[in-house]
Automatic annotation (TrEMBL):
Keywords for this protein: Cell cycle, Cell division
Taxonomic lineage from the root: Eukaryota, Fungi, Dikarya, Ascomycota, Pezizomycotina
Bias-annotated ranges (Pro residues): 13-23, 906-917
Biased composition, class Acidic residues, residue ranges: 1034-1051
Protein's name according to its UniProt entry: Ataxin-10 homolog
Function: May play a role in the regulation of cytokinesis.
Stretches the record annotates as Disordered: 1-31, 414-443, 709-749, 840-859, 866-919, 1025-1051
Residues covered by the Ataxin-10 domain: 779-848
Organism (species): Podospora anserina (strain S / ATCC MYA-4624 / DSM 980 / FGSC 10383) (Pleurage anserina)
Sequence ranges of Low complexity compositional bias: 842-852
Signal peptide: none
A biological-process GO annotation: cell division
InterPro entries: Ataxin-10/CTR86_families (IPR051374), Ataxin-10_domain (IPR019156)
Length: 1051
């Protein structure tokens, strides 16, 4: 047959018959009206059916079947991520939600048994499984646990994705109807129980440790996904928020009979009943969700088709059951009629009583009215006076040791003390008659007992044993990236965003949940852990966790509950607990945001902020400063050898916590001080007193640190540790043991409180500055406060360099500038200080001349100098013309301190030196030799650069600069008088300034204060020398040059 014939036959033959259609099982859709299932629904529900069989071992599922189960679940997860239509279709499937619930209901008991032991042992402490036994179970069931956890994580991811649709209320209601939220809670509990166990990995071999680590990470990942699903489920749904909030806050184990609570106390069981009644009154679903549920019951569940009926035990069941089959007591969601809450005390039916009240919980409302800020509606609690603060400080100093012994008391003593306090109405410790006279309102309304006796115990988060609450342990398990969903849940439940609608009873449900948050122990514990989490992980203000927590604190502030939260976060043994420190930091961040766009002075927001600041400053005045000052006082006694160091009641860790809290308080005051609208409150409350008290305490209790370590000590230590090298000695020679390592930190009684002075001086400078738009004079009210509380002396003491407070000298000059500007009293004080200074005796001057040492600020001891003779003396460099600087002062100063350069000759030559004065130029010879002297390069490296005074090169001097020069002029005159009395200049400058130096001869008080003033003059001289043309600038020296220090005779 040719090809043409074959082609002809093929063209004329009939076409082959079509292939037979695929035989698919018909879906029951026509007979009972069931909607058709998509291919994704069929595959996904089939996979979940097999997975449930695997978990229940009924029927037994083989490896090949599980391969397809895993494949279908993975593909469904990918589609819910990428395909919007598939996600919406699955989210409206009642069958999908029921199968998800059934899978987790089967998985939780199975995982529990394989991870932490039998279910019967969970609630029985005697039968509980130890961490070691749990480790054995996990490693034994490693393979099955890993496979099942991976599938459960994917299923929870799918459940999370199904809630991200244009109409989220539909899947949210279907999820609640299937009670998947209950499985969510049980899964969170399981993950917390497994991941919070203290597994000892050191006793495991490498393979077992890796298995345990992998299973633990899978549980953490499942926990994170559960939190994300919970956040999506409660988003913009008040009913779901209330359901979730009541579940995590009302701890069933901690619930007690209401008869155990006294009259007027918060009763959690009553509050829980009222919340459940509100939930039932607001149990109506959205219309589309109700329609889907009714269709499912009629077309699927009634015919016995899996997955079966929806649970009918919840108050939500009336939404899909036939009318009349269950009692429906829900309010109509479409009814927007406003109601007035009415509380009928003698109403026998609790549901009817709560229904008439209309709000969520009267128990919560009454608690809030009692516990909120007493100044919420009007100013009830006044600011404690300075006299009260002084008495409080003295009491703290007297009772310091007893106070810490009381904090560490046993539980039996706590019970006895509380009984005595209740029976005898004993005042709180440290309070005297002054408390009742000056701070009566404070003691009553802002008392520490505001939070009941139950909170006097130590912080549970730092103890052993489980903490109350479903979510309380979560911050101790997850890291910052994993825990974000938890913070978003709390924020979503309590933050009062603008524009939220009120309920028919006029209730803001966000604020109600915020009050529940702090009314219940579980909520307070969770808040504490959230705050401590920021400190543990050292999160910055830019991190998402910090910003979310700031919004949580903002919500608490809107309900006027930060005072109560502050008291609930107390730890008796701490001046300020870590959680309180973080709370202060968050409040400070909140106020800093206000400074960018401050509210109007008469606005409600401004008044609310001022009342919060009022409360925090009361804490600052009544607790923080007195107790810190008491510690500094004890440090001073130990430093002066009046007390034994072993009597110091706290360790370095407690001191560090106290310092961190004090630092945050000062940061808050600095932020508030930036705005004139809030600064005047600090002035009105005399905040300068507390700052002066702290300065005095630091000056007396802490030795100033030099810029470099004393050389003799280093040399001696090096000589002691150095041993001769011998060839026959090995590294492990026993003949020459190594010296013991130095201590890691100073003892607690030498705690330096580093950086505190700089913060205090920054605040004082802000308080002293003139109002906005004016260049002077300084604030007269603050000037008077500082002088009245003897604050000028501590300020002058800050002129000495202190390595613990490196920029205190620069900041104190600003304080002195505004303090002297316009204050005749301050100027008179300094003149009297110089006048009362006795002239040195000839013996003292002779001994000073023999010492041949130069005191360099910031170095620990005198530096040897070599005095040039007349034959070696070169022509001195041109001296700075200080007469131009001091000219404006000549008319305002007494004749003793007036300069020769009068107003008509501001730029004239300097006056002639006094008779008998011999100009001397001293040269420093700084080098490292066998005796351990300081190297010249080391000296140059550590000497402070000259201070750049603002406007120092300008011809015009404002009043504030003139008064600052007044201090320097007084010091110049005193230095000149000392040089004249010496008869011949000697290159010696004594370093008898207060604080941390090693003086050979004791100095009386006036001499020490005078040396502080001279320090300012020295800085001015260095500024002038560095600004003259062609000489003395920074960076002009070479290695071959000698460091020359010339003793100037300032006029």
């Amino acid at each position: 047959m040719t090809g043409a014939e074959a082609a002809n036959i093929a063209a004329n033959s009939p076409p082959p018959p079509p292939p037979p259609p695929l035989e698919l099982e018909p879906l029951p859709r026509n007979s009972n009206g069931r909607r058709p299932l998509s291919i994704e629904e069929v595959c996904f529900t089939s996979a979940m059916t097999c997975f449930e069989g695997l978990l229940k071992l009924d029927p037994a599922i083989g490896t090949r079947t599980m391969f397809y189960v895993t494949k279908f679940i993975s593909r469904t997860l990918e589609k819910t991520h990428a395909l919007k239509d598939v996600r919406e279709n699955l989210s409206k499937s009642v069958e999908v939600w029921i199968w998800l619930t059934r899978d987790f209901a089967a998985a939780i008991p199975s995982l529990t048994t394989r991870s932490i032991g039998p279910l019967a042992s969970l609630n029985d402490p005697d039968k509980g499984v130890t961490a070691q036994e749990s480790t054995t179970l996990i490693t034994k069931n490693y393979q099955s646990l890993r496979d099942d956890l991976q599938l459960l994580i994917k299923l929870m991811h799918i459940a999370r994705n199904l809630l991200v649709v244009p109409e989220p209320e539909i899947p949210q209601d279907l999820c609640a109807a299937a009670q998947f939220d209950q499985m969510l809670y049980q899964t969170i509990i399981l993950c917390v129980n497994v991941t919070s166990k203290a597994y000892d990995g050191d006793i495991l071999e490498e393979g077992a440790r890796l298995k345990l680590s992998e299973i633990t990470e899978l549980y953490k990942k499942l926990l994170v996904t559960c939190l994300q699903q919970a956040h999506n489920w409660i988003a913009k749904n008040d009913r779901n928020k209330m359901s979730f909030w009541s579940t995590v806050l009302f701890d069933e184990d901690a619930m007690e009979d209401s008869s155990l609570y006294g009259e007027g106390e918060f009763r959690p069981d009553v509050a829980k009943t009222e919340v459940q009644n509100w939930y039932e009154r607001n149990s109506e679903f959205c219309p589309k969700a109700r329609q889907l549920l009714v269709e499912y019951e009629e077309t699927v569940a009634r015919h016995g088709i899996p997955p079966g009926h929806l649970p009918c035990i919840s108050p939500l069941a009336w939404n899909w059951l036939p009318e009349g089959s269950v009692r429906a007591r829900a309010d109509k969601a479409s009814d927007n009629t406003k109601i007035t809450p009415q509380w009928v005390e003698d109403e026998p039916d609790k549901f009817t009583q709560d229904q008439r009240y209309g709000r969520v919980s009267r128990e919560v409302d009454v608690w809030w009215l009692k516990i909120r800020d007493p100044n919420y509606e009007s100013w009830v609690v006044p600011m404690p006076t300075v006299e009260f603060a002084q008495q409080r400080t003295e009491n703290c100093k007297a009772n310091l040791v007893n106070r810490y012994a009381h904090a560490y008391r046993t539980e039996e003593h706590e019970v006895e003390d509380s009984v005595h306090s209740a029976e005898g109405n004993a005042p709180p410790e440290g309070s005297g008659e002054q408390d009742a006279k000056e701070g009566g309102h404070y003691a009553h309304d802002y008392n520490d007992d505001m939070i009941e006796e139950e909170d006097i115990d130590d912080d549970e988060s730092y103890g052993e044993g489980p903490m109350s609450g479903l979510l309380t342990e979560v911050p101790n398990i997850l890291d910052p990236k994993q825990i974000e969903a938890l913070h978003m849940i709390v924020k979503s439940c309590i933050l009062d965003n603008a524009g939220l609608a009120l309920s028919n009873a006029g209730e803001n449900l966000q604020k109600t949940r915020c009050r529940m948050f702090l009314a219940l122990e579980c909520g307070r514990s969770l808040l504490r852990e959230i705050l401590v989490f920021i400190a543990v992980w050292e999160k910055s203000e830019q991190s998402l966790i910090f910003q979310l927590t700031t919004q949580i604190v903002e919500a608490i502030h809107h309900s006027a509950l930060i005072p109560y939260a502050w008291q609930s976060l107390r730890i008796p043994k701490d001046i300020i607990s870590p959680a309180q420190t973080v709370l202060l930091r968050l409040v400070n961040n909140m106020f800093r945001a206000r400074n960018a766009d401050p509210p109007k002075a008469e606005s409600k927001e401004h008044l609310r902020d001022v009342k919060l600041l009022h409360f925090l400053f009361i804490q600052f005045r009544s607790r923080i400063v007195p107790e810190c000052a008491a510690l500094m006082h004890l440090q001073a006694q130990i430093r002066n050898e009046l007390c034994d160091p072993s009597d110091f009641p706290v360790d370095s860790w407690d001191m560090e916590r106290a310092k961190d809290g004090l630092t945050q308080f000062l940061e808050l005051l600095s932020t508030v001080n930036e705005l004139q609208e809030t600064r005047h409150y600090l002035i009105e409350w005399e905040a300068a007193y507390e700052l002066i008290v702290l300065l005095k305490g630091l000056e007396a209790g802490v030795e100033k640190a030099t810029m470099v370590q004393p050389v003799p000590a280093r040399s001696a230590q090096r000589q002691q540790n150095d041993t001769p090298d011998h060839d026959d000695h090995g590294y492990d020679s026993e003949d020459h043991p190594l010296a013991p390592p130095p201590p890691l930190q100073e003892p607690a009684h030498k705690f330096p409180w580093a950086g505190i002075k700089g913060q205090i001086l920054h605040i004082l400078a802000g308080l002293l500055q003139p109002p906005n738009g004016r260049n002077g004079p300084g604030n007269p009210e603050v000037q008077d406060q500082i002088l009245r509380h003897n604050g000028l002396v501590p300020l002058l003491n800050c002129c000495v360099y202190d390595d613990h407070n490196r920029f205190a000298r620069e900041r104190v000059q600003i304080c002195l500038k505004w303090l002297m500007d316009g204050s005749n009293a301050a100027n008179k004080f300094l003149r009297d200080l110089v006048a009362m200074n006795p002239q040195p005796s000839p013996q003292q001057l002779a001994q000073q001349a023999a010492q041949q040492g130069l005191r360099v600020d910031g170095l620990p001891s005198d530096v040897r100098v070599r005095t040039r003779g007349a034959q070696d003396e070169a022509a001195p460099p041109p001296r700075p013309n200080l007469s131009a600087v001091h000219a404006p002062l000549s008319r305002s100063l007494p004749p003793l301190v007036a300069t020769n350069a009068g107003p008509g000759n501001p730029g004239g030559p300097p006056p002639p030196p006094p008779p008998g004065h011999v100009p001397v130029t001293a040269v420093l010879e700084v080098e490292v030799d066998e005796n351990g002297e300081i190297d010249r390069d080391t000296l140059k490296e550590h000497i402070l650069p000259p201070i750049r005074g603002g406007g120092g090169q300008q011809g015009e001097r404002n009043r504030s600069e003139e008064l600052l020069r007044n201090i320097m002029t007084l010091a110049d005159e005193q230095a000149a008088a000392a040089a004249v009395a010496a008869g011949a200049g000697v290159g010696v400058v004594e370093g008898g300034v207060m604080g941390g130096n090693n003086n050979t001869h004791p100095r009386n008080r006036s001499e020490e204060l005078l040396r502080d003033i001279i320090t300012l003059a020295d800085e001015a001289a260095r500024l002038a020398m560095n600004s003259r043309p062609g000489g003395g600038g920074e960076g002009d020296e070479t290695e071959e040059e000698e460091v020359v220090v010339e003793e100037e005779e300032f006029m």
